[in-house]
Write a structure and sequence with these properties.
Elements (H helix, E strand, L loop, with lengths): L4 E6 L8 H9 L4 E6 L14 H6 L4 E4 L13 H9 L3 E4 L11 H8 L3 E3 L18 E7 L6 H14 L4 E4 L3 H7 L13 H8 L8 E4 L11 H11 L3 E6 L5 E2 L2 E5 L3 H12 L7 E7 L6 H15 L3 E2 L7 H8 L1
Parallel strand pairs: 1-2, 1-3, 3-4, 4-5, 6-8, 6-9, 7-8, 9-12, 12-13
Antiparallel strand pairs: 10-11
InterPro entries: DgcN-like, DgcN-like_C, DgcN-like_N, P-loop_NTPase
Pfam families: DUF1611, DUF1611_N
Protein name: DUF1611 domain-containing protein
Length: 331
């Protein structure tokens, strides 16, 4: 993909709708030249605001759709912006379920301008079904009490912490944002259901005995829409360890107010039971909290209370040390 990117925010009204844009800003800032918002947008990346022509003049190579609405469909209101990106000579990069080539006239415009349409959310062809075969190497999977609460950030931060300790480790991306950051991966939510476990096995193949694959989690076992994606990833990644991600202020599943967020004890029990189908030794080794809304004192109390209750190390991947959870992984 041609870099740097102009990150398109459309009319996003909440940061959770712009996970892709925030992920790239935080983990690949050198690849981001600016942001482009439409009227009504209430989200900012705190990057320079510019349109495609201005971004092209700054050296941008692609207009990247940085928002991911429920269902992953390209909104009709965005289409003029995509044509504007093409007119400015930018490739269009999308992580939506909607194929860019299916938007009337877009492929012809791209061809005439000599630019590309890049759909990231396209799984490889001929994926196998899962086998459950024990693979060499070590694996950690990030899991969650809900969606959009830090599984990707936790996986990226753990990968860095392991490498800083001299451990051979790779981040394995399972969603469009992770793939854009890592440059490879499999978009698990676009895989046909029969092949999700097999895709997860392909995502994290046999490795050296001391090597760790840190697999980015997707969805949640407790989400009425996305639990199926999560379960296939749990079975196929065959994790030796899991880190449970949680937002302490979230009382119900996102976009599903009739489904309360489970307790940490319940979530740990159900994730371990699910994972032990393909790895009897699978265990949760730590709790990753999103503490962005907490003071330092509130964070310290939350960690102390949780560690006392569960006997597991707690951390915030963007704010605190990860030494204790890495020690537990490697023990």
């Amino acid at each position: 993909m041609r870099k740097p990117y102009l990150l398109f925010l459309g009319e996003a009204t909440h940061f959770s709708q712009a996970k892709t844009a925030f992920g790239l800003r935080d983990w690949a800032p050198e690849s981001c030249v600016g942001q482009w918002s439409l009227p009504g947008c209430a989200v900012t990346l705190e990057l320079a605001e510019m349109n495609p022509a201005q971004a092209a003049a700054k050296g941008a190579g692609s207009l990247l759709i940085g928002i991911a609405p429920v269902g992953g469909r390209v909104s009709e209101s965005w289409i003029p912006s995509l044509f504007a990106g093409i007119e400015a000579g930018l490739d269009i990069v999308s992580g939506m379920h909607t194929s860019l080539a299916d938007i009337p006239g877009l492929a012809d415009a791209a061809k005439a301008r000599g630019v590309r349409l890049v759909d990231v959310r396209r799984p490889p062809e001929n994926l196998p079904t899962g086998t459950g075969r024990k693979r060499s190497g070590k694996r950690l999977l990030t899991v969650g009490t809900d969606c959009a609460l830090g599984k990707k950030y936790t996986a990226l931060a753990l990968t860095k912490a392991l490498r800083d300790r001299g451990v051979d480790a790779d981040f394995r991306a399972s969603g469009q944002t992770g793939i854009l950051i890592a440059g490879s991966g499999i978009p698990m939510d676009a895989v046909v259901a029969d092949f999700t476990a097999g895709a997860a096995e392909c995502l994290s193949p046999d490795a050296a005995p001391a090597h760790w694959d840190i697999v980015e989690g997707q969805g949640s076992l407790f989400h009425p829409a996305y639990a199926g994606v999560t379960l296939g990833l749990v079975h196929g990644s065959q994790p030796d360890a899991m880190v449970l991600c949680h937002d302490p202020y979230r009382t119900h599943i996102i976009a599903a107010p009739d489904f309360p967020t489970p307790s940490l004890k319940v979530a740990i029990k159900q994730y371990e039971e699910a994972a032990q189908l393909t790895n009897p030794d699978a265990r949760v080794v730590g709790i990753s909290f999103n503490t962005s809304a907490l003071s330092d004192a509130e964070r310290s109390k939350l960690f102390a209370d949780t560690e006392s209750e569960l006997g597991l190390p707690c951390f915030d991947p963007l704010k605190t040390s990860m030494t204790a959870v890495v020690d537990r992984m490697l023990a």
